């Protein structure tokens, strides 16, 4: 490390160029020096040349676009990386970190590419993408009920691998099958077993990372502070996750799912009123999500709201019906609505595949369809009254597009302390909201209109959601809540407090210790403390 940096610095001064860390050097010189550094660090057993895609490589665009999951960040004007390193061996990750640091290039780390604001593959500074999609092995140890999963593995691949080994094990993580373990877990990772088993990060027991010096560390060598930080604090501020060790959880051989849709005319409002009373304190085996969308009523020209209730129950339909008949009778759930299946089949059901679809779709890396999109989040701690819901429906009908997902909390989520991991949204939350808007053309005017609509709906919810701070979920990345491009610590950094509450201060201290020069950074990374504060 040290000699390389010194060699680099002297080379730069010979060429009469200013210090490489200033980022002011011309991209092509930086690129050339970076490539030379990579080749100097290449091991003969694992040549790095085969995994580097420079912008003149015929496959550069296809590799870049393969893991773009929001078309807003795939336009001709989107800033592009100088090159992509699609690491196949841990030595490639180490070399990339060492060389990017020594030439002063920013890196963006990408696993599944689902970051809602594209932070894993877009930057306004000269940058490279460190792509993890080739590192996707999954090794399950059933005797230990655990697995090592590399960061480029998708959730679909993980669910597939677990179910191939056991009918009674699963893992609590997200619904979308193409999410990458690298980004998804490090941002918390929630899914429909959250009320029973907590978040993905609550079930992670070890990890290997590459730190800012290019060293590979595991839980023991990184220490408990850093291991705490990467489980919910966003590893992109701290290092590169190579592999996670996850603890598998028990699932019954048969679970029950349902999806039931009700319009306002069919009593949706009363169901939602009651749902808020029970969703977070009902049995932990039950998870009922509500999806709220504006739509057409049954009569010509009439507008309504449809509330779709989607559920996973870790038990059979008899027990489910008894439970809902008691707690949410307004829904009128019937035996014919309930479908019993294996846990892995329920994953396909939740991903909207027809019953009977082959499990092979879990292995597909091609997303079901791409759109331009915007997401925001909120947390609700007091039930919203019937009168307020009715006013909200009017706003949603007026906006006439997009919608909200309401995901219940409680259960295991309330038992885990708010400081156990950086993810702070634990006891006291009834549900989390995702604001969701998709659109199909990338015209600036269309995009601005949809961004505005998303913000309007978010604005309308202000009286009903958490305050000081108005909390937000890191995995629902939202650039509207503030950025920190220069990486300087500011008192009460707004996005940091919203994502992490009091845990933000601990994250800043850990960041300052492990990456004092703020190499691992993005618009919403954890800033370092200025020297005088240390
Ligand atoms: C369709 C869709 C559905 C979703 N559903 C859910 C859901 O059910 N539950 C949920 O919790 N979230 C959900 N999300 C949000 C999702 O969890 C986050 O976008 C998550 O960050 C995606 O991880 P990724 O690896 O795919 O993304 P990436 O864009 O690759 O990474 C996201 C962030 O993590 C960093 N990162 C990625 N890999 C690494 C690594 N190896 N080391 C260090 N840093 C890394 C990136 O730099 C970036 O900052 C969904 C998103 C989409 C688009
Ligand atoms: C690569 O190695 C060569 C030979 O040892 C050295 O001259 C050169 O400065 C190195 N370049 C970089 C960027 O590390
Ligand atoms: C591009 O990808 C194709 C198909 O994967 C491959 O055959 C070809 O060699 C690649 N080209 C380069 C320049 O890497
Ligand atoms: C990388 O290469 C080395 C040998 O060159 C090998 O031992 C190791 O298993 C490879 N894989 C990873 C993931 O680093
Ligand atoms: C609602 O009806 C209008 C026409 O009245 C139609 O254009 C639109 O596609 C319908 N929307 C939905 C969601 O069915
Ligand atoms: C629901 O409860 C009512 C009485 O409270 C009872 O009549 C009905 O049979 C129950 N239905 C189911 C499916 O348990
Ligand atoms: C949306 O646009 C309208 C009109 O252009 C403007 O008045 C309003 O303030 C905007 N709302 C938000 C939340 O940006």
Describe the protein's architecture and organization.
The structure is a single chain. The chain has 16 helices and 18 strands. It is α+β, with helices and mostly antiparallel strands and 534 residues long. It folds into four domains: 3-131, Uridine Diphospho-n-acetylenolpyruvylglucosamine Reductase, domain 2, CATH 3.30.43.10; 138-250, Uridine Diphospho-n-acetylenolpyruvylglucosamine Reductase, domain 3; 255-341 and 371-464, Vanillyl-alcohol Oxidase, Chain A, domain 3 (3-Layer(aba) Sandwich), CATH 3.40.462.20; 482-533, no CATH class. The protein has a seven-stranded antiparallel beta sheet. A five-stranded antiparallel beta sheet has the order 5-6-10-8-9. Helix 2 (27-41) runs antiparallel to helix 4 and helix 12 (386-399) packs antiparallel against helix 14 (444-460). The chain is globular and about 70 Å long. Mean pLDDT is 93; it is low at 1-27. InterPro entries: BBE (IPR012951), FAD-bd_PCMH (IPR016166), FAD-bd_PCMH-like_sf (IPR036318), FAD-bd_PCMH_sub1 (IPR016167), FAD-bd_PCMH_sub2 (IPR016169), Oxid_FAD_bind_N (IPR006094).
């Amino acid at each position: 490390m040290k000699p390389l940096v010194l060699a680099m610095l002297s080379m730069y001064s010979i060429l009469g160029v200013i210090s490489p860390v200033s980022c002011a050097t011309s991209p092509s010189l930086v690129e050339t020096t970076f490539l030379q550094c990579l080749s100097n660090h290449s091991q003969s057993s694992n040549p790095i040349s085969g995994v580097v895609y420079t912008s003149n490589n015929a496959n550069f665009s296809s590799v870049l676009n393969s893991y773009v999951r929001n078309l807003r960040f795939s336009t001709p004007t989107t800033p592009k990386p100088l090159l992509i390193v699609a690491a196949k061996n841990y030595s490639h990750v180490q070399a990339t970190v060492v060389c990017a640091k020594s030439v002063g290039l920013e890196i963006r780390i990408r696993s599944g590419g689902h970051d809602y604001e594209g932070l894993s593959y877009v930057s306004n500074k000269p940058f490279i993408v460190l792509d993890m999609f080739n590192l996707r092995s999954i090794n399950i140890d059933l005797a230990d009920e655990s697995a090592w999963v590399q960061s480029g593995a998708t959730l679909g691949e993980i669910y597939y691998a677990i179910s191939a080994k056991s009918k009674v094990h699963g893992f609590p993580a997200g619904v979308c099958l193409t999410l990458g373990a690298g980004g998804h877990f490090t941002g918390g990772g929630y899914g429909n077993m959250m009320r029973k088993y907590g978040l993905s990060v609550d079930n992670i027991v070890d990890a290997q990372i590459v730190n800012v010096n290019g060293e590979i560390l595991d839980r023991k060598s990184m220490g408990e502070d850093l291991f705490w930080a990467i489980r919910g604090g966003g590893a992109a501020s701290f290092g590169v996750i190579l592999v996670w060790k996850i603890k598998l959880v028990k699932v019954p051989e048969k679970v029950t799912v349902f999806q039931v849709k009700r319009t306002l005319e069919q009593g949706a409002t009363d169901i939602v009123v009651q749902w808020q009373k029970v969703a977070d304190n009902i049995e932990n085996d039950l998870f009922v999500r509500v999806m709220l969308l504006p739509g057409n009523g049954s009569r010509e020209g009439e507008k309504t709201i449809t509330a779709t209730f989607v559920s996973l129950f870790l038990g059979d339909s008899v027990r489910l019906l008894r439970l809902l008949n008691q707690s949410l009778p307004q829904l009128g759930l019937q035996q014919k609505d309930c479908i019993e299946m294996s846990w892995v089949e329920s994953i396909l059901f939740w991903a909207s595949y027809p019953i009977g679809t082959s499990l092979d779709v879990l292995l597909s890396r091609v997303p079901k369809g791409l759109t331009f999109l915007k997401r925001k989040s909120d947390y609700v701690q007091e039930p919203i009254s019937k009168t307020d819901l009715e006013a909200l429906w009017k706003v949603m009908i007026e906006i006439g597009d997009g919608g909200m997902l309401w995901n219940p909390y409680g259960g295991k989520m309330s038992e885990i302390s708010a400081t156990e991991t950086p993810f702070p949204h634990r006891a006291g939350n009834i549900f989390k909201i995702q604001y969701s808007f998709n659109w199909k053309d990338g015209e600036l005017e269309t995009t601005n209109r949809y961004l505005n609509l998303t913000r309007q709906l978010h604005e309308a919810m202000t009286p009903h959601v958490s305050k000081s701070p108005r909390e937000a979920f890191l995995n629902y990345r939202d650039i509207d809540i503030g950025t920190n491009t220069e990486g300087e610590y500011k008192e009460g950094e707004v996005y940091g407090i919203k994502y992490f509450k009091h845990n933000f201060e601990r994250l800043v201290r850990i960041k300052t210790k492990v990456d004092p020069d703020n190499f691992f950074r993005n618009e919403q990374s954890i800033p370092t403390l200025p020297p005088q504060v240390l």
